[in-house]
Design a protein that fits this description.
Blueprint (H helix, E strand, L loop, with lengths): L2 H8 L8 H5 L27 H8 L4 H9 L1
């Protein structure tokens, strides 16, 4: 987990990461179970549930880092 995410999780009053920090891909993303998959399976719709996304995320080794990144 990168320093900006750890700081945000540890101190909610801290400032959010800059746009440049968010656009720079952290190294853990290369180890994500979803790396290289199409992103449309992660956007649920009224006719398509998020079952596929849940299956991918459930076996991902970097779930904590991803969650912190998504919340930031």
């Amino acid at each position: 987990m990168d320093r900006a995410m750890v700081k945000l999780l540890m101190d909610p009053s801290s400032t959010l990461p800059s746009l440049a920090e968010l656009l720079e891909r952290p190294p853990w993303m290369a180890r994500a179970a979803c790396h290289g998959l199409r992103t449309d399976c992660f956007v649920p719709s009224g006719t398509r549930p998020s079952t596929a996304a849940k299956a991918v995320c459930s076996r991902c080794p970097v779930r904590p880092e991803c969650l912190a990144y998504a919340l930031a």
